[in-house]
Q: What sequence folds into this?
């Protein structure tokens, strides 16, 4: 158990039968009335951010979570299969725990977040940026558009489709931002 005095960014707590991390908090002592703590809480399972106010001294249950590095092996009907890099233990996760599954290629290292008490997987986090090859895209012809931010659809080596600028061609390597599933930049070979 912890109180609101123990709040810090990144602390994981149990709240409303779910696990949340504290994204932001602020202790407030108004001129009239009791002190309270305003917080922004991010759900570990859904990623949704909510605002909540706790009275000063409110007791909360702290949840221990662990981040472990795994290597992606393959995907089949059951889900995604991963191997722990040190123990070689293999686990499989369903697709709903994978927000950016389309940008993951075999052999890639990911971080899987576990609830330490129950040993259940909560989420799978890819690196912020991954480099992938464009396997197919329509050729972009200069003068095809009137705007400067024209995009076209490109298919990547993982099978995912992504909007890219017109100058990206088949065979190019691009950097993809997995936090918002968007094109970041072209990478030199």
A:
């Amino acid at each position: 158990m912890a109180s609101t005095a123990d709040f810090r960014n990144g602390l994981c707590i149990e709240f409303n039968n779910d696990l949340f991390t504290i994204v932001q908090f602020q202790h407030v002592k108004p001129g009239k009335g009791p002190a309270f703590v305003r917080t922004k809480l991010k759900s570990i399972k859904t990623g949704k951010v909510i605002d909540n106010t706790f009275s000063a001294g409110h007791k909360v249950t702290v949840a221990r979570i662990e981040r472990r590095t795994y290597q992606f092996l393959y995907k089949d009907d059951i889900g995604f299969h991963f191997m722990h890099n040190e123990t070689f233990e293999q686990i499989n996760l369903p697709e709903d725990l994978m927000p950016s599954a389309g940008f993951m290629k075999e052999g890639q290292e990911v971080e899987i977040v576990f609830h330490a008490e129950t040993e259940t997987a909560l989420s799978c986090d890819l690196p912020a940026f991954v480099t992938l090859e464009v396997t197919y895209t329509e050729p972009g012809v200069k003068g095809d558009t009137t705007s400067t931010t024209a995009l076209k659809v490109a298919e990547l080596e993982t099978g995912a489709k992504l909007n890219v600028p017109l100058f990206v061609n088949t065979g190019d390597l691009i950097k993809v931002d997995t936090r918002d599933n968007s094109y970041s930049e072209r990478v030199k070979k």
